Amino acid sequence: MANTLIEIQNISKSYRRDSMQIPVLRDISLTVPDGEFLGLMGPSGSGKTTLLNLIAGIDKPNKGKIVVGGMDVASLNETALAKWRARHVGFIFQFYNLIPVLTAYENVELPLLLTKLSKDQRKKHVETALQVVGLADRMQHYPKQLSGGQEQRVAIARAIATDPTLLVADEPTGDLDKQSAEEILTLLERLNKEFKKTIVMVTHDPRAAEKAHTVRHLDKGELQ
Amino acid sequence: MKIPLKYTVRNFRSRRLTTAITITGVALVVFVFVAVMMLSNGITATLIATGSTENVLVARKAANGEISSIIMNETYNIILTLPQVAKDAEGKPIATGDVVVVINLPKIGTEGGFSNVTVRGVSQPAFDLRPMVKIAEGRMFNWGAREIIVGSAVTKRFEGAQIGNVIKFAGDNWTIVGVYEADRTAFDSEIWGDVSQIQDAFRRGVSFSTVTFRLSSPDQFEALEKAFADDNRLQQFEPKIEQAYFEAQSEFMAIFISVLGIFVTVFFSVGAIIGAMITMYTAVANRTTEVGTLRALGFQRRNVLFAFLTESILISLIGAAIGLFLASWLQFFTVSTMNWGSFSELEFSFTLTLKIILYAVGFSILMGVVGGFLPSVAAARLNIVNALRSA
Asked: Which parts of chain A have pLDDT scores under 70?
């Protein structure tokens, strides 16, 4: 049996709007083994992106504990958390979130700038990542010169460039046509199977969910 | 290595118009700042060049300038006997007693406007003490004649002050027989004649305004000061190194122009800073998602702050470079103004120095920091989740 990578214990999260506390997640507990491809589904406002943000360390719970790869993420201060994210988490966003003024190569290189790798070593990482996503011939292209599917593949290359422990994907096919979406899902599946990446993916798309090993549903902030 | 500089630089392109307007604003402020500094520096440089470090100028202690100083012949003779006065090969003191007066002449292109011009009566050693004064056109005046030579700036700016003309002052006619050049010093803005003729015409008897002489040795100045302090007959007079004397003459105008200029520049810079601030707030607003992404990837708040601040400073530095480039062309212009030290017109050039360039660069960095600080802090303080939501 695989080791546990993510262990979530009784977390709750609420947001304050004016004087109101709006609960988003209620007493969630979840365990994700290493090498898992987990799909999180649920209607809009169910709290799935919030849960993903907590796992990825860009938000903190009001209550409970999140341990990822043995690290109590919620207890880290902001600086330590940023360093942890840079080392352990690869992000894949719905709208790709590439930096428009940087080329595909430079976008993929961005997270590597936070490591101690030399320029040559970074180059090797970037080229490998872009080869994995099949865009080695588009390195010098800017995001606006790429199709949506290609942009998302560059974003995936950026996410895997540092060889992180965990990939988090928020609606990775949400802005893509059917064919591009299929390509991205196949790529994620390959990253999971071939490169043993643990993936947590938020999606609305049942076809995307089909690729996941496990699918958990959230509704009104509660895990079903 | 953190957020790459190319990210900052290339973002200029994505909002060319606002960046260009901000750069223009900073360039204008820097242009004004540099121009004023060059003007102030030009006056000082001209007057410093006028005096030599080897010469000593003696004036009455109470006098504000050469024209208000008077030294009687008896005192003049005492000064010449001091051992600190250098002698020529024949054993004569290398010294000149100058009579400095101010006359009015009509200015070219001002339709009836008059301005003050310094007339300096000199003796032969004056040309040894001020070797930069050289006849450029015509000839030297004859000693003992009502003849004068005019500085190149005077002949250029005053009506009738050209070679061959006769000008009238002190109730007499004076023929201009030559034009001299004085290496862009204040002497260029003067009229020179025989001291005895000037004394006579202005009914000065045998008195001088100032006495200038070559110091026998540079280390003798202290001894000279002591000699003046110890001799009752010389206590009303003060010897100064000629260069220091003329530099002090520039002080009032230089400070006046600098203060006025800095006041205007600071006023303008408020506008430029607000412009930079608006540009940077717009930049932050347009790139909220990018900031969220960078922070999610692991870049720290300080990296974001530094990136935006760098952007603001770079905009200012580009503006400074343009402003400096434009202002550097002013070096080819000369202007004239009333020098309050001599109450007469002084022509000088805008003078650019490394110090002015460094001040301008420092000033522009300050504008960039002040204008960019709050927007950069706003960018650095963005909440990651909210920033990513703005996609």
From this structure: 1-2
> To the nearest whole angstrom, how far is the Cα of B370 from the nearest Cα of chain A?
26
Closest CA to B193 of B384, A212, B204: B204
Residue spans of the domains in chain A: they are: 36-49+77-223
Q: Are A171 and A94 in contact (CB under 8 A)?
A: yes
Give the chain B residue nearest A53 (alpha carbons). Answer: B385
Grade residue B1 by pLDDT with cuts at 50, 70 and 90: very low
d(CA B328, CA A134): 54
Q: Which of B1, B3, B300 sits opposite A82 (nearest CB)?
A: B300
Cα–Cα distance measured from residue A10 to residue B248, given in angstroms and rounded to the nearest whole number: 80
Q: Which residues, 6+ apart, have CB-to-CB distance to A26 below 8 Å? A: A12, A220, A221, A222
In chain A, residues with a C-beta closer than 8 Å to the C-beta of B7 are: 99, 101-102
- B14 interaction partners in chain A (CB closer than 8 Å): 100-101
Q: Which residues of B touch A86 (CB under 8 A)?
A: 297-299
pLDDT for the residue B258 = 86
- Put simply, whether B10 touches A (Cβ < 8 Å) is yes
Separation CA A210–CA B259 (nearest Å): 75
Cβ within 8 Å of residue B374, ≥6 positions away: B277, B281
Q: Which amino acid is at B242?
A: E
Please give the full DSSP string across B321-352, using - where no structure is assigned.
Answer: HHHHHHHHGGGG-EEEEEETTTTEEEEEE---
Interatomic CA distance for residues A194 and A186, integer angstroms:
11
DSSP per residue over A91-102, as a string?
A: EE-TT----TTS
* Chain A, chain B: beta-carbon pairs less than 8 Å apart: 69
pLDDT of residue A18: 81
Closest among A102, A172, A80 to B290, alpha carbons compared: A102
Q: Which two tokens stand for residue B175?
A: 């023929």
- Compute the nearest-CA separation of A161 from chain B (Å): 11
DSSP letter, residue B107: B
- Strands A4-17 vs A20-33: parallel, antiparallel or unpaired: antiparallel
The Cβ-side half-sphere exposure at B13, using a 13 Å CA radius, reads: 7
The CATH classification of domain A36-49+77-223, taken from the options 3.40.50.300, 3.30.70.20, 3.30.110.30, 2.60.120.10: 3.40.50.300
Alpha-carbon distance A101 to A108, whole Å?
13
Q: Please classify residue A156 by burial: count the beta carbons closer than 10 Å to its beta carbon, then call 0-12 exposed, 13-18 middle and 19+ buried.
A: buried
ipTM score: 0.94
Strands of the sheet with A214-219, listed across from one edge: A89-92, A166-170, A198-202, A37-41, A214-219, A222-223
**Does B16 touch chain A if contact means CB atoms closer than 8 Å?**
no
Q: Which residues contact A178 (CB under 8 A, 6 or more apart)?
A: none
Quote the radius of gyration of chain B (alpha carbons, Å).
Answer: 29
pLDDT tens digits along A65-106: 999 999 999 899 999 999 999 999 999 999 999 999 999 999
CA B375 remoteness from chain centre: 38
**Average pLDDT of chain B?**
91
Of the CA atoms within 13 Å of residue A103, those in its CB half-sphere come to 13
Torsion of CA B249, B251, B253, B259, to 10 degrees: 180
